[in-house]
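user: can you give me the structure for this one chain? tokens are fine.
assistant: on it. calling the predictor now.
[tool input]
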Amino acid sequence: MTTVRLKASDGFECPAYVAQPKGKPKGAVVVIQEIFGVNPHIREVTDGYASAGYFAIAPAMFHRAKHGVELGYTPDDMQAGMALKAAIEALPDMAFMADIQAAVKYALHNSGAKVGIVGYCWGGLLAWRSAALVEGLSAAVPYYGGGSTTSEEIARHPKCPVMAHYAKQDHWIGLDTVDAFAKAHPVVAVHLYEADHGFNCDHRGSYQKASADLARERTLAFFEEHLA
């Protein structure tokens, strides 16, 4: 486990957390953070993909707004994360997407394998956008991507296979919008869980182990199919 610096096409540099598998990688996975930064949970998730045999990298997606962001899950942390997300999303021409492209390029170069992307919460939205906008991806898995089911995002056309995880009790993402997303993209594997937003995160009160385990099992099988 180490930190590297990625250089985007516009010259901006951002740090990224890297976890290496034992032996030759069977693929590479770019892990996109929630609104809480590359915090202990996201590093654990990244380590988990490395343990499953993947070269894994988590770019610091808030770096263009603030350096070294590692938030917890209190209401104050939530407020701080929402403000940082708004600052990043306000950047002209979605400049931050260049940081994801740099992470994909780094993963491709250093793993010698196909690259997938997975994202959680805001990262789920970015993973969905990446499927349409980022070059070099062979699979994308957004988890409860906040905003991914708006009409603007539904209009995107992914260039790689996508599996999307949503929660039935998610008060941030209406089930009617998930249904609209699924109908607009019949080739996307959409899964619904008896859980709330953030069900994958065992640092949050909304953690739901059965759903998290099933989603991970499906995600790893999906990556096995498209990255191996």
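assistant: here you go. Helices lie at 40-51, 75-89, 97-111, 122-133, 151-154, 175-184, 209-227. The first helix runs from residue 40 to 51.
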